[in-house]
């Protein structure tokens, strides 16, 4: 299938957050029912953020976080079901990987079902490095004076 009108963009301000919320509700089982406010926070703290539009319709999305030199992680890769199987998903991930912030030693991602898709792009399976801490709501943030004290102590 050929979609000459499809545009890839790295401009965060162009992303329609309501459409993004809908896209996640349809096809991202890990990202259902995210609020517009929280999506906005995630986008502003991610770089690059790549959106894919067919005219005004948001049909793909991916974002990454990176330290700019050692490690980066890709998050929330989705292509709308109507547009899958035409190469857009791999182009989306390759667009993320080609961004200057992604020129690091290692790029990680977590996937439950799409290992085969990422292998075609060059990712390797890696079962040894992942740990997770769920829900930090019960962790009180340190008061600012305590953080300063720890920095002075080098801790
Ligand atoms: C994963 C996803 C982004 C792929 O998008 P897509 O546009 O269909 O991918 P492409 O058309 O670029 O596929 C590229 C290649 O990977 C293959 N492929 C796609 N999904 C695959 C899978 N799960 N297992 C093995 N191969 C797969 C395609 O057949 C194609 O192969 P080819 O180059 O030999 O033709 C899309 O299926 C999706 O949004 N899924 C739901 C959300 C999701 O699970 N995202 C990943 C979260 S980590």
UniProtKB/TrEMBL annotation:
For this entry, the protein name equals: GCN5-related N-acetyltransferase
**PROSITE patterns per record:** GNAT
Q: Which GO cellular component does the record give, naming just one?
A: cytoplasm
| InterPro entries per the UniProt record, alphabetical | Acyl_CoA_acyltransferase (IPR016181), GNAT_dom (IPR000182), NSI-like (IPR045039)
Q: Which Pfam families match?
A: Acetyltransf_1
Q: Which CDD domains match?
A: NAT_SF
The molecular function terms in GO held by this entry are:
N-acetyltransferase activity
Domain (N-acetyltransferase) spans 6-145
Key words of the record: Acyltransferase, Transferase
Q: Does the keyword field hold Secreted?
A: no
């Amino acid at each position: 299938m050929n979609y000459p009108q499809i545009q890839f963009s790295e401009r965060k301000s162009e992303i329609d957050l309501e459409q993004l919320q809908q896209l996640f509700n349809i096809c991202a089982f890990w990202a259902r029912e995210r609020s517009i406010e929280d999506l906005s926070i995630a986008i502003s703290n991610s770089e690059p953020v790549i959106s894919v539009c067919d005219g005004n319709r948001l049909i793909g999305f991916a974002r990454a976080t990176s330290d700019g030199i050692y490690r980066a992680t890709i998050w929330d890769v989705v292509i709308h079901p109507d547009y899958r199987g035409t190469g857009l998903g791999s182009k989306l991930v390759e667009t993320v990987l080609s961004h200057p912030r992604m020129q690091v030693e290692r790029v990680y991602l977590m996937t439950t079902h799409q290992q085969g898709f990422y292998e075609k792009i060059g990712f390797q399976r890696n079962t040894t490095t992942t740990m997770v801490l769920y829900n930090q709501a019960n962790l009180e943030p340190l008061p600012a004076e305590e953080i300063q004290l720890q920095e002075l102590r080098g801790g």
